[in-house]
Design a protein that fits this description.
The complex is a heterodimer of chains A (118) and B (564). Chain A has a domain at 42-113: Alpha-Beta Plaits. Chain A has 118 residues and is of the alpha+beta class. Chain A has helices spanning 3-12, 26-39, 61-70, 94-101; strands at residues 49-54, 74-78, 84-89, 105-107. Chain A has four helices and four strands, in the order H-H-E-H-E-E-H-E. A four-stranded antiparallel sheet of chain A has the order 2-3-1-4. Chain A is elongated and about 50 Å long. By secondary structure, chain B is mainly alpha-helical. Among the domains of chain B are: 3-138, no CATH class; 296-547, Methyl-accepting chemotaxis protein (Helix Hairpins). Classes of the chains: A alpha+beta (118), B mainly alpha (564). Chain B: Keywords: Membrane, Methylation, Transducer, Transmembrane, Transmembrane helix.
């Protein structure tokens, strides 16, 4: 790049006023979040049936099973993450009972949340 | 081209690629999944977001960040739309290509955002919903491999951008150094220019001083003072040489003017004997020759004037005598012309009176002609009346003859009646008385008719005679009218001739009056000429006296007379 093209480049750099403001990232973040949420629709758990129950981190697998049974669900199997287990809800109130017992949210039993078969 | 322009152009490229990727996501979703599902909706939402951002914030960094985010999201949407096909793995190359293109924006944050979006996409969806990211089995190792490649590319791009900015700084420093060298060169040039300016100012000051000295000398010379000189103490020898040349010029002019002035002074003192005898060159030699020539010519002129003034005095004396004689004769001529004018005016009055009278006579003659023609017409009517009277008399005579015959027949009848009454006897006695009365009436009627007949014949004879007289009178009146008409024409000719004569006399009178005026004017001119000649004689005498004050060289005077 020669001298003639250098000077305008240097002179133009101060024109990006506010490029370090966090607000500049807001449109991109909003689009990414909305897209991620939309793309994650298949992760939503069914009201009844097989679903992955997510507990707070460091919740033991035994505690998780106990809470599932206490809520009236059936045990399907563990996942790769100890604080996430796959359960079977028999009624529509299963998820509300699980939230009351300490679970965070529910996901479809796929991918990382799929039950371990071996 | 500025960095903003480069970024704007690159952002537009990213925008275009995002639109293409979004449309590809819609097409792939329709082709692979058989419906417009979530990936296609995300792709369309990304295009809408970019369009809105273009019109609201395209001059801000936020638009760049949004553009790279949407581009990565569109690629993710394409991969999600291709769920279940082997092409999913190949489409991952689009992430790396898009990340490479993000370097065109020359913004590290854009690269970091693109990397972060791909990383989060791989980590979250690769772990939770691997079917949206990978074809076949997913796994942490596979995600880690992609992440390593992604990070390597991002690091390389950031390094490349860092090096680019360093190169830019180097170039900027080089430009600054070059500018410093240029400024140093300009400074040196200014110093040289200032020294040249000082030298020129010094020379200008010296020239101004020389010009001022020249101006003083030239102004004094123009005022007739040739005593001033230009000083010869300048720093430059050329200027001193120039000053000495000017001084020599002034000295030469002063000498020539002084000698010429002496000759002119002698000429002004009526001394025409002085001449310039020095040694001169060039224009001064011509000035000397011209001054001597002026003196010679003036000598000749004075001598000529002196001779001419004597001749002029004699001539004006003769002219004055002749002018006085002419004046007297002109006065007499004017008097004669004036008398002639008076006579012509009287003659013109007489002619005018004659013309008026001739006009009146012509009018009277015209009246006579008209009266004679009227009388002639009346006589013609009288002749007609006389003819009718004659014819009436003849008719009356016829009637009288008839009456006479009736009276004769009545007398015979009365006679026969008397005879028959007489035969009747007593019975016819009364009838006989009537017949006698009838006979007597018939005889009376015959006598009366005989007398009337005689009178009628006498009247007819007189009417015929009257008719002849009337005819003669009418002929006489016609002759009178002809004579009067002829007389009228003659009188009209006389009147016209008198009028022409009157006009001619008037013209002659005008001509004589003009002659009188001209004569009067000539008399005045003669008087003026007489006075002018007298004045010219006085001027000639004065000229002769004025010329005699000059002193002439006898030899020059002899040459002047020869020239004259």
């Amino acid at each position: 790049m020669d001298d003639q093209s250098m000077t305008p480049v240097q002179q133009s750099r101060p024109r990006d006023k506010g490029d370090t403001s966090p607000l500049q990232f807001l449109p991109a973040i909003l689009f990414a979040l909305v897209s991620a949420i939309a793309l994650a629709a298949p992760l939503r758990a069914p009201v009844t049936g097989e679903m992955a129950v997510v507990f707070p981190p460091f919740t033991s697998e035994q505690t998780a099973w106990a809470l599932v049974r206490e809520a009236g669900g059936s045990i399907v199997g563990p996942t790769r993450i100890p604080s996430i287990v796959v359960a079977y809800g028999h009624d529509a109130e299963f998820q509300s009972r699980m939230r009351a017992l300490g679970s965070l949210f529910f996901l479809a039993a796929e991918g990382l949340c799929a039950p371990l078969t071996a | 081209m500025t960095l903003s322009h480069i970024r704007a152009l690159a952002t537009n490229v990213v925008f275009a690629l995002a639109v293409v990727a979004g449309l590809a996501a819609v097409a792939v979703d329709w082709a692979v999944q058989g419906s417009i599902d979530t990936p296609a909706i995300i792709a369309l939402a990304g295009i809408a977001a970019l369009v809105a951002g273009y019109f609201t914030m395209r001059a801000t960094p936020a638009y760049r960040y949004l553009a790279i985010t949407v581009l990565m999201g569109q690629i993710a949407a394409v991969i999600a739309a291709a769920d279940g096909t082997p092409w999913q793995t190949d489409l991952h190359m689009a992430f790396f290509a898009a990340l490479a293109l993000s370097a065109l924006l020359y913004d590290v944050r854009v690269i970091l955002i693109g990397t972060a979006v791909v990383a989060v996409h791989h980590l979250v969806f690769g772990m939770l919903v691997p079917g949206l990211v990978f074809y076949g089995d997913s796994g942490f190792i596979r995600i880690a491999l992609h992440a390593v490649i992604l990070l390597l590319e991002a690091g390389g791009l950031i390094w490349l951008m860092h090096n680019t900015f360093r190169l830019l700084n180097i170039a900027r420093d080089s430009a600054a150094e070059a500018e410093a060298h240029a400024e140093q060169a300009r400074s040196l040039a200014r110093e040289v220019e200032e020294s040249e300016v000082l030298r020129l100012e010094e020379r200008h000051r010296t020239l101004s001083e020389l010009r001022e000295q020249f101006g003083t000398v030239v102004t004094a010379a123009l005022d007739g003072d040739f005593s001033r000189r230009v000083p010869v103490d300048f720093a430059e020898g050329d200027l001193n040489e120039l000053a000495r040349s000017i001084n020599t010029l002034v000295e030469n002019i002063e000498g020539g003017v002084r000698d010429t002035s002496a000759i002119m002074s002698a000429l002004s003192a009526q001394d025409l004997t002085r001449r310039m005898h020095g040694t001169y060159r060039g224009a001064f030699a011509r000035l000397s020759e011209d001054t001597n020539a002026v003196a010679d010519r003036l000598t000749e002129v004075v001598e000529t004037i002196r001779t001419a003034s004597g001749t002029l005095s004699q001539a004006t004396a003769d002219l004055l005598s002749g002018a006085e004689d002419l004046s007297q004769r002109t006065s007499r001529q004017a008097s004669t012309v004036r008398h002639t004018t008076d006579s012509i005016e009287a003659l013109a009055g007489t002619v005018r009176t004659n013309a008026d009278r001739a006009g009146k006579a012509s009018s009277a003659t015209a009246n006579v002609v008209a009266t004679a023609e009227t009388g002639s017409a009346v006589m013609a009517e009288a002749t007609g009346a006389m003819d009718r009277i004659g014819r009436s008399s003849q008719q009356i005579a016829g009637i009288i003859t008839l009456i006479d015959d009736i009276a004769f027949q009545t007398n015979l009848l009365a006679l026969n009646a008397s005879v028959e009454a007489a035969r009747a006897g007593e019975a016819g006695k009364g009838f006989a008385v009537v017949a006698v009365e009838v006979r007597r009436l018939a005889q009376s009627a015959a006598e009366a008719s005989s007398e009337i007949k005689g009178l009628i014949e006498q009247a007819t004879s007189q009417v015929s005679e009257g008719n002849q007289l009337v005819g003669r009178a009418a002929a006489t009146l016609i002759q009178i009218a002809d004579a009067a008409r002829t007389s009228n024409e003659l009188m009209q000719g006389i009147a016209e001739a008198a009028a022409d004569q009157n006009m001619a006399i008037a013209e002659v009178e005008g001509a004589v009056r003009r002659i009188d005026e001209i004569t009067q004017h000539n008399a005045a001119l003669v008087e003026e000429t007489n006075a002018a000649v007298a004045q010219a004689q006085e001027q000639a005498a004065t000229l002769d006296a004025a010329v005699r004050v000059f002193r002439l060289d006898p030899a020059g005077a002899a040459r002047g007379r020869q020239a004259a």
